[in-house]
Amino acid sequence: MKFFQDTKESLAIAGQAVRANPLRSVLTMLGIIIGIFTVTLMGAFLNGMDSLFRQTASSMKTDVYYVDKWNWGGGDWRLMRNRPEIREEYLNTLKQRMTTASAFSLSASKWGQEARFKNRSVQFINAQGVDEGYLSTESTVIEYGRFFTASELTSARPVCVIGYEIANKLFPNQSPLGQTIRLSGYPLQVIGVAKRVGGLFAFFTVDNNVVMPFRTLQTAFGEKHQSVTIGVKAASVQHKEDTRDELEFVMRQVRKIKPGDNLNFGINNQDQFNQAIDNISRLLGFVGFTITGLSLLVGGIGIMNIMYVSVKERTREIGIRKAIGATRRSLIAQFLFEAAMLSLFAGIVAIMLAFPVTLLTNNLLLSDSDLHIGFPIFYALVGLTLSFLTGIVFGIAPALKASRLDPVDALRYE
């Protein structure tokens, strides 16, 4: 019972001290406010970026592996550049020898093309040639029109499926179906429009692609021996690692790579993107928390200095309290509560500022963007906890100093 009475009394005295010096209290809280405001907005931004990253990565299926000349996760660019090309005939070999795959696809790309319709054009798009397995290994959905027929695929018909962004820019007020576009001068009839993927890297997805039959791509660009990408879909999601191991084994045989030697091809999967996303998120989080930590350190030092000043100014008060029976514990509690109240109130103010800022950012700055930031409740709670702990940690030294004052010396203090 006495503990609660002491606590109540300490809280009341601490509250009076904060209210007695409002300007000093506000200036003391500034560092904490900046720190918590930063960590809350950083959390909102990280959540939005993470969602956007994964939205893009979701355009690939998790159970599909892509044999490619390049490793999508990075590596020594000079070594990968000199690797032998991935050849079209590997596809039949993989189909014949693999037992853990359910679908295969063949594709090739030509980046940096121009799509034009009348006086409108879209620059630096990707022309992609595909075969009949494309829809089985990709997440692409045809929103309008249709995919290629078997005869169109085998006879290299000049037809195409265009991505959402290209359709939006070339045909803003009319249907693209049945229209003929020119891809770097080569005419292609539009027979379908792919559903929008969006996301931060939508530029690299089907949104920015003109998809056509594989043979049409070879005819349009005259390259029959360029490196291709082979997609292999696992028969079972639960055992997709078995498919990856079998794929590597067969490709080693095809490329005549001895056991233990490094691969001269890449086996890529959505997991690599997810790992890259996690690494980027960790890096951004580290930078954000470092900035926040420095802000809290500055704010904490400010609180400690103000608390030392407060102890100095209230030395006689401390002496009187000790003379009438106040214990060291009650004095420590009084100053710790004061420091914690300052810091916690600063955290609440910071969160009250951060909430409308996230709303305004979404409505004014990001209204036309795929990036949307929501108010991060988790980070707000973390911010409040950090602000409270900052007050406690940096209030300990002044509180101990106050509790150790000799009552006689304190009463004589002028």
Low-confidence stretches: none
Principal-axis shape: elongated
**What is the radius of gyration computed over CA atoms, rounded to a whole number of angstroms?**
33 Å
Strand content: 15-25%
Our count of helices gives 14
**What's the number of extended β-strand segments?**
10
Helix content: 55-70%
| SSE series | HHEHHEEHEHEHEEEHEHEHHHHH
**Largest sheet strand order:** 2-3-8-5-7-6
Termini gap: 36 Å
List the helices and strands and how they pair.
Blueprint lengths: L1 H19 L1 H36 L6 E5 L8 H5 L8 H8 L3 E17 L2 E11 L3 H4 L4 E4 L4 H5 L4 E4 L1 H7 L9 E4 L2 E9 L14 E5 H8 L7 E6 L5 H16 L10 E3 L1 H44 L1 H9 L4 H38 L11 H27 L3 H6 L2
Parallel strand pairs: 3-8, 5-7
Antiparallel strand pairs: 1-9, 1-10, 2-3, 2-6, 2-9, 4-7, 5-8, 6-7
